[in-house]
Hints:
By secondary structure, the chain is of the alpha+beta class. It has a domain at 29-125: VSR Endonuclease (Endonuclease, Chain A, 3-Layer(aba) Sandwich). 37% of the residues lie in helices and 17% in strands. The chain contains five helices and four strands, in the order H-H-E-E-E-H-E-H-H. The chain has helices at 16-26, 30-39, 82-95, 105-110, 112-124; strands at 49-54, 57-63, 68-73, 99-104. Strands 1-2-3-4 form a four-stranded mixed beta sheet, sandwiched between helices. Strand 1 and strand 2 (57-63) form a beta hairpin. Helix 2 crosses helix 5. The longest helix has 14 residues, at 82-95. It is globular, with a radius of gyration of 19 Å. The relative contact order is 0.13. The model has no long low-confidence stretch (mean pLDDT 81).
Amino acid sequence: MARSAGGGRPQSLRRPEVYEARRARREMSLPEVLLWQRLKGSPQGVAFRKQHPIGAYRADFYCAAAKLVIEVDGIAHDMGDRPQRDTERTASLEAAGYRILRIMAADVLKNADEAAQAIVAVAANPLHHSPEEANGPPPRAGEDLR
Length: 146
């Protein structure tokens, strides 16, 4: 049997994305810290996770109930190949059924309370539900007027 070397699991069973997410939680940027201070504790009954691994990616924040990924985009997201990588990442996550909400780091620094309120509003009141989430067939003509 493989010998455990920290983390409580044999090295062959460790998930590197989990360890990377733990590291990222300790090294969050200032805008991420400011948002987390406002999103932790389930504001308005909406629970969030920080630096949550989703497949090959890691969401800055994630709301499981709304399947909402929140990304805090700083200036680095405008440089080099990042715009292309962000586009590919967004397409991949959306194809897997996630909604993506991008918020500019500068907006968080200007008014973290307002940014957090906007995130909670999106998570608490999704604009539409996918057909898989619907509870049964749509109402018949006129049935919804009763």
